[in-house]
Amino acid sequence: QLQLVESGGGLVQPGGSLRLSCAASGFSLDYYAIGWFRQAPGKEREGVSCIHNGDGTTYYADSVKGRFTISRDSGSNTVYLQMNDLKPEDTAVYYCTGPVIVVGCRAPFDSWGQGTQVTVSS
To answer: Which residues of the chain have pLDDT under 50?
Structure first.
C-alpha cells in the first residue's frame, strides 16, 4: 500500500466542475498504477478511473467517460481527477489508492484513506 492523501472535494451545482488531487509522500508515483474510487451512501465502492503512471494507460467507468479526466504530474508527485459536468449521482466520498489494477480499475489491497466528499446538488 502506498501513502496517498486526497483533497479537492466540495459542494458543487449540477453541471459544475471539481478537480481532486491525490498526493503521494515518501515515494515516486512514476511507476505505479493509481486509481480513484468512490462510495455513495448505501452503495458499494466502485472504481471511477485508474492510471498507470509508467505507460499512461487509463481506465474510466462508463458512467464518467467523457466527463472525468485522470492525469498525473511527476513534478508534484500527484494524480488528479478533473470532473466536469457533474451530476447528482456523482455525489460520493472519493478515494485514491494504489497500486491498482488498471484493467477494470480494481484495488486488490483494500487500503483506503479518509477520502474527500463530493456533493453535487442545487
So the answer is: none
